Each structure stands twice: as structure tokens, then as C-alpha cells.
Amino acid sequence: MHCFIISVKKQCGFRQRKNDFSAGSPELEEIFGIKTGRLSGIVAHHIPNYLQKNRLPSWETNIMEDWEAKVDKIIEETENENMTLISGIPPWLIMYFEKLTEKHGKKIKQLFPNLQLIVTGGVNYEPYRDKMEDLLGGKVDIIQTFPASEGFFAFQDDYTREGLLLLTNHGIFYEFIPLEEFGKPGARRLTLKEIELHKDYALVLTTNSGLWAYSIGDVVRFISKDPYRILVSGRTKHFTSAFGEHVIAFEVEEAMKATLEKYSAQITEFHLAPQVNPSEGLPYHEWLIEFEKEPENFELFRDELDLQLRVRNTYYDDLISGNILQKLKITRLSRNAFHEYAKSQGKLGARIRPQD
Known about the structure:
Blueprint: E1 3-6, E2 19-22, E3 29-31, E4 34-36, H1 39-43, H2 49-52, E5 55-56, H3 59-62, H4 67-78, E6 85-88, H5 90-104, H6 108-111, E7 117-120, H7 129-136, E8 141-148, E9 151-155, E10 164-166, E11 172-178, E12 200-207, E13 214-225, E14 228-235, E15 239-240, E16 247-248, H8 249-263, E17 266-275, E18 284-293, H9 298-312, H10 314-321, E19 329-332, H11 337-344
Parallel strand pairs: 2-5, 6-7, 7-8, 18-19
Antiparallel strand pairs: 1-2, 1-6, 3-4, 8-9, 9-10, 10-14, 11-12, 12-13, 13-14, 15-16, 17-18
Helix pairs in contact: 4-5, 5-7, 8-9, 9-10
């Protein structure tokens, strides 16, 4: 989902609240008699009538393909409205909020004082939490979800607790491949009663819409069995193992989160990649980071980030201890570097999940 903003009409003489569902284009293409399009665009045709009456942005805005122009138009149509619930992928919410803040010189809670809830999904929210809280400038409850084209799998039924409640009675049969076996001949597919807590599994689906033993590409970790609660710990393709370390996205995100908290820094985006053949010295992990607020002591920040990753991944720790890898290095990127790169590749506004 790009930026899905909902509110409900308020009675008793207060200013009317609006529904704002800005997503992929709702224009559908018919192929062999079947209407096709982006998931969020298809969903736009199935929003209940009671939410349609006050819905924004307009159809003309929703079908815009230029994401930057679309965000500007969304701002134009929402900036003076009484927004109460906003939903979307964190990077695009941040873009929307930053543009609003730059235009008005106010925090989001000042612009939308009745904003009560943000519903997010698509990527792990935690690396973006500090940046979001800074932009919001006030208390807003956050609920995380786990949606995809293939189904709606889980949601945070209690926003005060970690983990998402797995939906086990929604026409989906789940199986789980231990991540270390994924892609290997004879890999086991475990049922819910066979899973173990705090282990990473590739998610496999069989659904009543026709999917059969389909690997969705997501990696999950169970933190509870009664009820079944999960964390989305990454993607089967989102890992680095150039040196046998098999560092997954969840470990990277948690290491970054812990380091940011310790040094009161903020980031907009980051990326990790192995430097296999450096010009000098041992190989290393290179972290490309776009800082919103840099740490006061950059070297201590780097050391802590390296330590936090070593704590979470014993293979990486062994490689450092055995002098096979040197400690990670950080490359600072200029403001909007990721934004500009995505734009240069024609990917600005593209969905995070390849299935959508």
C-alpha cells in the first residue's frame, strides 16, 4: 500500500472527517476477460459505501503514475481536512509527512490534531519509529499488519504488545520451511503444531483461491503459540551471506534499532551490502546510511552497530573474531539519496513487495 488514509465522519457539529485512500491506480486492465491491476488499486473498488462518501483523494489523483506529483496532489486535497487515521508503508508516509511539515512548518499532530491511529505494513516499522515519532510530534497509536496479494495473514491485535496475531481461519493453510533448509532438496514443510519459537521460517501457502504450496518469499518468527503470534523477520532473498554468515534482514534491523536508541540518532533509510574485494584490508560489511540525525560520536556508533550484529548472528561474530572479516564500515549518504536513486531507476513510488 502506498498511503492509505482513512477517517470517519464526525457528528455533533464538528468539522467533517474525510476518507483518504491514496494507493496504486484503481484503473484495471482486462486480460482474457479477467480484470487485473495492483492490489491496492483492486481493493479501492471494494471499500464499503460508508467509507466512500467522504473518501479522498479524487479519482483523478489516485490514477496518477508520477509518485512525486501524486503526493503533492494528495497534500493539496488533505492538508485542510480533519484526518484521524492514516495507513501506509513507512517510507511513503515519511515522504508525505515531510512534505506537509516543510510546507506548513508544523508537526503532523499540529496539522491533524484529531489524528489517533496509524496502520502500517509492508516492511518492519521499527527502523522508522524514531523518525515517524519526530514528524508526528505527538502521541499516535500504531498498529502493524501483514498483508499481501495472496492473502491477509496477520495483524497487531494489541498495539501495546510485540508481535502479530496469525489468522488461522481465513482460507489459508500455512506451512513453514526452516530458513536454513529453504531452497535445498528435501526441505521440510512444517505445520503449525510442529513449529518452534524464536526460529526463522520461510512461509508457504495453500489457499482456497487456488495457490498450492506457494512460497511467498517472507520469513517469519514465532514468539507465541497460544495464540500464534509472529514477527515478520525478513524475506527469503533479503539476506547477505557472501562469507557464510547468512545475516537476515531482521537481525540487521534489530541491530540498527538498538544502536539508534543508544546513541539518540535517527535515520531515513539504510542498506547493507558485502564488500568482497576491498582495495585494501580484509573484506567487510558496508552499511549505506542516510542519517536524519547523526550520532555525536560516529566511531562509537559504528562499533556499537558492529557489536549489536555480532550479538545477533554468531556466524558473523566468528568471522570477525577469526579475522576473516574486519568490522563493518559506514558510508554516509546525502539527504534524499535513496529517494533520488529510486527516481533515477523509475522505481519511485513502486511497491515494496514484489507480489504487488
